[in-house]
Amino acid sequence: MDNICTRILASAWRGVWAVDWENRFIFFNKGMEDTSGLRSEDLIGKDLMLLLPDQKIMDEVHFRELFHKAKETLTQVHYSLLPIITTQGELKEQSGQLLPLLDEKGAYSGMIGTVEHTSTKKISAALGEHTLAENKLDAIYRNSPVVAFLWKPLTGWPVVFVSENISRFGYHAEEFTSGKLLYSDIVCPEDLSGLNSDVADFEQHGQIYFTKEYRIVTRSGKIRWVTERSMLARDEKGEPSYYQGIIIDITHLKEIDNALKESEKKYRLIFENSPLGIFNFDKDGTITYCNEKIIEILGIPKEKIIGFNMNSSLKDEEMKAAFREVLSLRMGHFEGKYVSQGNGKKVFIKVDYSPNISDDGTLLGGVGIVEDIGERKIAEDKLRKYADELSKANKELESLDRMKNELLSNVSHELKTPLTSIKGYGDLLMEGDLGEMNYKQLKALKTIIRNTERLRRLIDSLLYVSMAEAETITYEFRKIDINDLIDNAVTDMAMPIAEKNIEVLHQVQEDLTQIEGDAEKLTDMLTNVLDNAIKFTPSGGKISIFAKKGGENIQISIQDNGIGIAADLLPFLFQKFYQIDPSMRRKYGGTGLGLFICKKIVDAHKGKIWVESEQRKGTTVHILLPTLQGDI
């Protein structure tokens, strides 16, 4: 070391020592001699680590860890209140710095140790406890990244010494010690005036320790918050001589603090502007704070709410029971009419209580959220009344519907009676049993019989729908042949087929398996499908009937070459009273019940029915009916 540095180090701290890269002492000033009771000439050249047991450092492991940390990281390490028992048996509590020395290539070349402050105590039984407490207090701080300074109390604060870890802010130590930079050069301009003023006041009042938070500017222009902790040394006249201290980067702590303040600000904003009443209470149930909304809801002045004890003063037993759930560390809920104890105001409210529980599981207090549900209650009452009225109206409609079904059923039966007679006498006339008829008479009679049959199918459809809605339809299942069903349906429709000169082709697979079903209703189903096919097929057209077995089903398909149906209308064909176009009702007739009834009958037989069609090319209706179980 050169003489200037040696003199500075010898006088700047109460004690200074230095070792080379092999941990051998190369410097040990008088302050260290006074602190440890050891002599410089006895130590120079000796290994520091071998000396530790003789020094009786009570926290030897801690000191070794700090030393190796500074050596490995090449950063300054601070220690605080490190207890040492000297050779004279005294306890010396000291604090200082471990400053790594670097060579020209930036490699470790040794260590400087400083003692900034010492105090001497007698060794007592309480020493261990005291030392442990001090070390715990220092644990948060001792490993913090700090930068050590020694500067003069002159304009701009010229720097005599600065630790190498000033590089954390982008600067080099020699920039300060050479005079290229003053300490004031890195202080944020906005804070410099205030810092100057505080330092001047500090010096004027004769104080020793100086603490201040301010901002500095890094080499890259970023702003960092630091806290300065300095000791002012004065000369024999009491005038400021130099500042010895450290700065600690607290930017992260500031950011956390600012985030907490911002979070608290947002919380306050939400708290005060919430549409719900919110209040806090302590572990005894006393309300400590509330927002304005709860005052509006309850109509009670704030001064009567703050300090109110819910555990002892609540009169409403249900609300008190809900609150006491919090005392058992559970959430509580109350909903109902509340009569204010302050002014007798009646209000429907909902209150939710939540406990605030500490990390060790004890109750710290809680929060209550109050909502005015008066308008909701009014709406609920209106809705309940409306629902009751709808229920009553629905019952009346059900009654009317039953009456309609009964009327329809009775009328249908009454209409079928004279139709049976008309049909019977018509058949007798056609067969000539009542005498011969001329051509015109026979043609008129055929029209009567055709329309009588049409009217019969219409009445049967209405009767079926009425019975379906009343759920009174019964089915008589028995073994039947598909050929018989098809033949019966074609026979029923023989007259309109002949009148329109439609060719009916049969393509039925031989030896079809029997099915189990209601022959009469399945015939009605096929008759309805054929009726539609005949209705929409032009005179001289063609209808093909296919029947084949597929797996465990028999598929019947009835295909015509009529007007066809648009693809987007196919999903609606099986709805009750649905017709593609009202104009078709006028041209072709019909009620819109045929395919609806067909689907009901097929569903009852656990089958499927669907339609494929193309406009101006024709329509195919497919019916799938299950075969008898066990048949081959």
Structure in words:
The chain has 632 residues and is of the alpha+beta class. It has 5 domains: 3-143, PAS domain (Beta-Lactamase), CATH 3.30.450.20; 147-254, PAS domain (Beta-Lactamase), CATH 3.30.450; 274-372, Beta-Lactamase (2-Layer Sandwich), CATH 3.30.450.20; 378-457; 474-626, Heat Shock Protein 90 (2-Layer Sandwich), CATH 3.30.565.10. The strands form 5 sheets. The chain has a 5-stranded antiparallel β-sheet with strand order 2-1-5-4-3, sandwiched between helices. Strands 7-6-10-9-8 form a 5-stranded antiparallel β-sheet, with helices on both faces. A 5-stranded antiparallel β-sheet has the order 12-11-15-14-13. A hairpin with a 3-residue loop joins strand 21 and strand 22 (618-626). The longest helix is centred in the middle third of the chain and has 58 residues, at 374-431.
Topology of this structure?
Blueprint: H1 3-12, E1 15-20, E2 25-28, H2 30-36, H3 40-43, H4 48-55, H5 60-73, E3 77-85, E4 91-102, E5 108-121, H6 127-142, E6 146-151, E7 159-162, H7 173-177, H8 189-204, E8 209-217, E9 223-234, E10 240-249, H9 251-273, E11 277-282, E12 287-290, H10 292-298, H11 302-305, H12 310-313, H13 317-327, E13 332-339, E14 346-357, E15 363-372, H14 374-431, H15 439-470, E16 478-480, H16 482-492, H17 494-499, E17 503-508, E18 515-517, H18 519-535, E19 542-550, E20 553-560, H19 582-588, H20 594-604, E21 608-614, E22 618-626
Parallel strand pairs: 17-19
Antiparallel strand pairs: 1-2, 1-5, 3-4, 4-5, 6-7, 6-10, 8-9, 9-10, 11-12, 11-15, 13-14, 14-15, 16-18, 19-20, 20-22, 21-22
Helix pairs in contact: 14-15, 16-18, 18-20
